[in-house]
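Fill in residues.
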């Protein structure tokens, strides 16, 4: 290798290192909207027992739907590249009431944050109602029992979703999405053996379960 080539190789290596170091900065995307358009962001809240994820957010300008987004698991969304002007929002998800907001003013280069002002209550006629009762082994109702609800996943594992305490008549209730799924209900009480039942949900209807707890073995 000549003296000249020894000088060229380090120079080429230095140039490659400089290019690779600058590449991430060039590829990094700004979180700010474009200077000529704006954005709308927010977080959708829902009733207890329902998931805020997967809510469809439709952006309207007049009667026309001009953009669409879906909320993430936390209920958050952002719609970008909107021309300046006044917009309305329509929010839809199975099991929840349709939500609407009007008069959202979008400005160029700005993001309008609706924060958590969007709330969708349950549509009682479009969800599954899981209702049940807890009893003692002699058939008497058992108030004050801890009732836990978990979804049974495809691999057999369970994901805890919610819990209740049985009321004065031993009753409890959960509100669930109408999609087909299997749930596991477990009742516990001091001095009693836990009892578990599984329920298949397959639509907007009322499903019932009864759990009987026996005294714990001494």
């Amino acid at each position: 290798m000549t003296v000249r080539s020894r000088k060229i190789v380090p120079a080429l290596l230095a140039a490659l290192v400089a290019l690779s170091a600058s590449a991430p900065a060039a590829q990094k995307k700004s979180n700010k909207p474009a200077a000529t358009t704006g954005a709308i962001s927010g977080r959708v809240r829902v009733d207890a027992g329902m998931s805020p994820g997967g809510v469809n957010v439709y952006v309207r300008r007049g009667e026309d739907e001009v953009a669409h987004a879906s909320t993430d698991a936390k209920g958050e969304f952002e719609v970008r590249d909107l021309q300046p002007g006044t917009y309305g929002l329509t929010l839809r998800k199975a099991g929840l009431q349709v939500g609407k907001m009007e008069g959202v003013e979008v400005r160029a280069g700005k993001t309008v944050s609706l924060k958590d002002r969007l709330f969708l209550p349950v549509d009682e006629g479009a969800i599954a109602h899981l209702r049940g009762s807890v009893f003692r082994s002699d058939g008497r109702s058992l108030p004050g029992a801890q009732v836990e609800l978990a979804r049974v996943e495809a691999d057999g594992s369970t994901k805890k979703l919610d819990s209740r305490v049985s009321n004065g008549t031993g009753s409890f209730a959960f509100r669930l999405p109408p999609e087909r799924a299997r749930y596991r209900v477990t009742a516990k009480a001091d001095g009693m053996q836990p009892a578990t039942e599984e329920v298949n949900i397959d639509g907007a209807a009322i499903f019932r379960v009864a759990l009987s707890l026996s005294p714990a073995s001494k």
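The first strand starts at residue 38 and ends at 46.
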